[in-house]
Amino acid sequence: MSATQVHDTDEKPTFYLTEDHHPENSTMLGFWIYLMSDCLIFAVLFATHGVLGRNYAAGPSPADLFDLSLVAVNTAMLLLSSITYGFAMLQMERNAKMETLVWLGITGVFGAAFLALELYEFYHLIAEGAGPTRSAFLSSFFTLVGTHGLHVTFGTIWLVTLMVQVKRYGLNPENRRRLMCLSMFWHFLDVIWIGVFSFVYLLGVLG
Amino acid sequence: MSHESASQAHHAHSHGHEAGHGSFKGYMTGFVLSVILTAVPFWLVMGDVLDSKLFTAVLVMGIGVVQIVVHMIYFLHMNMRSEGGWTLMALIFTLIIVGIALAGSLWVMHHLNVNMMPMTHEMMKNMP
Questions:
Q1: Which site among A5, A78, A83 would you substitute to test the B interface, given the most B Cβ atoms closer than 10 Å to its Cβ?
Q2: pLDDT tens digits, residue range B19-29?
Q3: Which of A52, A77, A97, B13 would give a disulfide with A136, using CB separation of 3.0 to 4.6 Å?
């Protein structure tokens, strides 16, 4: 009698695992594969910059153009936004709606600060006559960093959208799934930025 | 009764699943590590610490790779088990393609540059 009972409870969870948990899991895996395909886009842009990054066409070189302290502040913004997004996820797991919203808001502010600094840098470069048409180096620079910036822009729009969704509908399973996808997207952009500041800015200034 | 315990087990499982998505300690460890791994390369380049440019470049790229791994583990929660190992599979596959694309492009284009026909002064003048 007791043996069958043990058998019974043993079997039920297995049933729930395979049938119930599958949809949520496959969303995450699917989103991960999307991120990997995005990674390939960036890999190609990095390769392009690797090939063209030293072709200045008698124009300015990275050492003339880049202000590393500005890049360091920019990097700090993105890194801080990554950790605050992590805190938002921890609050989401605790089911604390208000705290989740606050941390998401802080993440959004850091994201917006990053974008503002990057736009300022781009504006400054173009005003100096070092726009994307100046040399092969600057074309590939603007394409790579601009594509990353575009991703951050869309991530910020997504973040604001989700904040409205969470505020209106609460932390329901759908919003949790969306927040988890955006979490992966946001941290992934930070990973790409590591490549950008190491390969493009630091190695560029190093010459 | 049996159904209840099953749904409890289910709940416990789903909770365990979410706990696998990070803890405060994990995020803080990742954050402190990545602050250090960001500060060091900036210091190396901005402070002109080392004499050898090549060594600095290798160090900057090496620290960058370490930081990417730190982010993958502590922020993206990569491990061997998630999704039955399929996320890791997809990552390894992508890294192979990225490696081929990067190394291949740099290699081919470098040889193309080396083997380019030398340009005379006359040709340089007629360039667009």
A1: A83
A2: 346 789 999 99
A3: A52
